[in-house]
Specification:
Main location: membrane
Structural class: mainly alpha
GO molecular function: transmembrane transporter activity
Family: Belongs to the binding-protein-dependent transport system permease family. LivHM subfamily.
Membrane topology: Multi-pass membrane protein
Strand content: under 5%
Subcellular location: Cell membrane
Order of helices and strands: HHHHHEEEEHHHHHHHHHHEEHHHHHHH
Number of helices: 22
């Protein structure tokens, strides 16, 4: 029975599987498509079979909606006018143009009925048309459909399509679909099923392991070792790619920690101030982004895709100005009094949180991702989201720009001088109060940039900064106070370590373990990975 069914499908598909494209166009010209569709209304089942074959043989894309509607039971005959129509919900469409048809109250509609055999013929005809389409994308989609729904009756169709295929990617997908079908068909020989296993393992993608495990259940003794060997190889490969995926997740988390901690590193390094309100600068940067996008969405919707780029300088200037105000109004009166500074900045963080909560409410706000940051891509076995990718690139750019500021500008030279020996820098004529204010403003501005990035991966809420302040301090202490390269290495190391610990210990316990390890580490190296050098460092 299966052989007869397969033979029937091959005979139905042969007219368009074997003809070249110019022959198909000739067939299209020979077949009067509108007349053939019109004839469906009065045709019996045998005549419908011939009409389906004739329409499929044209190879024309215009007949695909008609054949699909016929197979789905959505093709109707209007008895009064004799018109054949496609049903779409409560609307009826002209089959070739797709235009809606107005029907009167007295319209007499009857469904053009088909049986299961004709449905199989229609499915085979559509599959054959798609497999032999001029578009590689359509052929690839058809092959993926055969892979997801294997049917032994489709093997002859796949054989014909494979013989004619020229695109390497489509050919691989077709071969994988054929191999999956053969592997799941108990009537195939053991030798053929063994030969199909490597093709399934290499071509079925993420579903390969599921397909092989399913085939292993009830597999003959001669076939089982081959499947088990392929499963073991895939599991080892999956473990490797899983580790690489964790490294990528760790790098993306590390880039976020870098953005959040890099401003803290320079303020803590230059001024020795423990700023507990640093997280709130991140939060204010996120809310600045929300406001900028809200204004653009209401007044300039055409610029919505550029809203994040516009928000970057706005967030930097807003948070930088607030940072300078905090330093001039609060911090400068508390130098040399670390406990009072810590309490003052902690109280300030609570005030900023409550202020934002009073203005925007306690609920989370949303920033729409631009189209160029939406979606993801596959890179070998890695799944890379565009949002995370651009955040990593952005963190690298910010880091390099900050390095350039510190090493190539007068302000950067003065900041490094104050970091290494404040008294000597003051004696050399450097205005340390001005450097302190600019340093605090620069660190707060960079925190605002971190807030812009975080709008794409975290909820915008008054508590946003609190989620990153402790991690930021861990990064700074671990990498080395005031050292940018230490902050970079510390952020990436902690990000990767967190992602490798989370599957085993959970997010909270994993963070606790990281904190314990850092405490043990600074017992041996109190100044972190990259210690600053200078005569006044020990003081």
């Amino acid at each position: 029975m299966l052989i007869l069914r397969a033979l029937r499908l091959v005979l139905l598909a042969l007219p368009f599987l074997l003809l070249p494209s110019n022959a198909i166009r000739a067939q299209d010209a020979a077949t009067d498509i509108p007349a053939a569709i019109q004839a469906m209304g009065e045709a019996n089942l045998r005549e419908l079979e011939q009409i389906v074959a004739d329409l499929a043989a044209t190879g024309s894309d215009t007949v695909v909606p008609v054949l699909t509607a016929l197979g789905d039971g959505n093709l109707y005959l209007e008895e009064t006018s004799g018109a054949v129509l496609i049903e779409r919900g409560s609307t009826y469409l002209e089959p070739l143009s797709g235009e809606a048809v107005e029907l009167g109250a007295d319209a007499d509609l009857s469904k053009i009925r088909v049986n299961n055999g004709l449905r199989r013929d229609i499915a085979a005809a559509l599959a054959g048309m798609t497999l032999m389409s001029d578009s590689p994308a359509r052929r690839l989609t058809a092959a993926q459909g055969f892979l997801a729904n294997p049917d032994p009756a489709n093997i002859p169709l796949l054989d014909e399509a494979i013989a004619a295929e020229t695109d390497a990617n489509v050919l691989k997908a077709m071969q994988a679909a054929r191999a999956v079908t053969i592997l799941g068909d108990d009537e195939q020989s053991v030798a053929d099923r063994k030969a199909a296993v490597p093709l399934v393992a290499s071509g079925a993608g993420r579903n390969a392991l599921t397909i092989l495990n399913s085939a292993l259940n009830g597999a003959p003794e001669e076939l089982a070792p081959t499947i088990q060997s392929a499963i073991a190889g895939l599991e080892q490969e999956r473990a490797i790619w899983g580790a690489l995926q964790n490294v990528w997740f760790g790098l993306s988390l590390g880039s976020v920690l870098l953005l959040a901690a890099i401003g803290l590193a320079i303020t803590f390094g230059v001024m020795g101030v423990i700023n507990m309100a640093h997280g709130e600068m991140v939060m204010l940067g996120a809310y600045t982004t929300f406001i900028v996008q809200l204004v653009i969405r209401q007044n300039f919707p055409g610029l919505l895709d550029y809203s994040l780029l516009i928000a970057l300088p706005c967030a930097f200037l807003v948070t930088g100005a607030i940072g300078v105000g905090i330093e001039r109004g609060i911090i400068r009166w508390l130098y040399g009094r670390p406990l009072e500074t810590l309490l003052a900045t902690w109280g300030l963080s609570l005030i900023l949180q409550q202020t934002v909560r009073s203005i925007f409410g306690p609920t989370n706000q949303m920033v729409i991702a631009p189209t160029w940051m939406s979606g993801s891509t596959e890179f070998f076995g890695l799944s890379i989201t565009y949002g995370r990718f651009w955040i990593v690139i952005f963190a690298i750019i910010v880091f390099l720009l900050l390095l350039m500021v510190l090493n190539r500008t007068a302000l950067g030279l003065q900041m490094r001088a104050v970091t290494q020996n404040r008294r000597m820098a003051s004696a050399m004529g450097i205005r340390t109060p001005f450097v302190d204010a600019m340093t605090f403003g620069l660190g707060s501005g960079i925190a605002g940039l971190a807030g812009v990035a975080l709008t794409q991966i975290d909820n915008i809420s008054p508590n946003l900064g609190q989620n990153y302040i402790i991690d930021s301090f861990m990064v700074v202490v671990f990498g080395g106070v005031g050292n940018l390269w230490g902050t970079l290495v510390g952020a990436l190391t902690l990000g990767v370590a967190n992602k490798f610990l989370e599957p085993y210990a959970g997010a909270v316990l994993g963070k606790i373990l990281i904190l314990v390890l850092i405490i043990l580490f600074i017992q041996r190296r109190p100044r972190g990975l990259f210690a600053l050098k200078g005569r006044a460092v020990e003081q």
